[in-house]
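Hi again,

Forgot to attach this to my earlier email, sorry! This is the prediction with NDP bound. I've pasted everything inline since the attachment limit keeps bouncing my files.
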Amino acid sequence: MTGFLADLTGSFATSAAQNPTVAVMEAAYSHAGIDVRYINCEVPPERLGDAVRGAIGMGWLGFNCSIPHKVAILDYLDAMAPSAGIIGAVNCVINRDGHLTGENTDGQGFVRSLQTVVDPTGKDMVVLGAGGAARAIAVESALAGARSITIVNRTVERGTELAALVSDRTPATGAFVHWSGTYAVPDGVDILVNATSIGFHPSTETPDVDDATIRPGMVVADVVANPPDTAFLQRAAARGATTLQGLGMLVNQALTNARLWTGRDLDASVMRRALEESLR
Ligand code: NDP
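Structure tokens for the complex follow:
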């Protein structure tokens, strides 16, 4: 801390108004007693370059990019972390004297959260969805040692592309299953992840998966963080599965972002409480 001059971090997205990350980060910075701020900025696509130059000009430590900037930001970076390069999208930028490095902490946050209930090493995983979240989760889980990743997606092109990415660029085996009708989880699957937007508040829809194929001992995770205990997780818990909420992924990526920007390990429980309060 230097007098009245705080270090700056933040987020560029549109629309930004419903993003609770600012509450999470500011609570954790304040709890750690460090003079760092997190500014939530509404940045339309045609202003991304101006926003990035502004952050460099003002000496920000770094920033998050959310929808719709996660791929467009690549044009402004000097370097990318290896996994972000494979995923092809960046949600966290670190600024060191105007040199910008891109990371993808979505998938890292998921894996850290997953590791609180199961070690992905050698596991067989099914990922429902093939969008940005699914891509980050599939690649990071594969790099963390998962044996196989099966992508189950409604749109064939997106799904086959992600399965091929897993096979070609990670040590895991990638496979694709076209999601048309009720999906039956094959025997032997250890981890099932809903990485679609199905079930996001106010929707109470659940992914079309055959409940009878969800078994005790399986880990079932949801990326949807609002509500934290989704109807899908409730269905899985009723079948005896171990469930993992999307809140853990959000908190763990926020922890990683803060570490990359400030070098500090912030308090996960403070972040989780702030997130739960803002979702309420
Ligand atoms: P995208 O739009 O990139 O991808 C959405 C995916 O969901 C696609 O695979 C899409 O299939 C699938 N999908 C959507 N609706 C349906 C449906 N009715 N039936 C079958 N498939 C469907 O979104 P993101 O990947 O960016 O985000 C997905 C979710 O992850 C969101 O809810 C988001 O909030 C959450 N998220 C959570 C994070 C966390 O930290 N907890 C971090 C990042 C995201 P198709 O390809 O066929 O269109």
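The pocket of NDP is lined by residues 106, 109, 129-134, 153-155, 158, 196-198, 200, 223-225, 246, 249-250, 253 (CB under 6 Å). The first helix runs from residue 21 to 32.

That should be everything now.

G.
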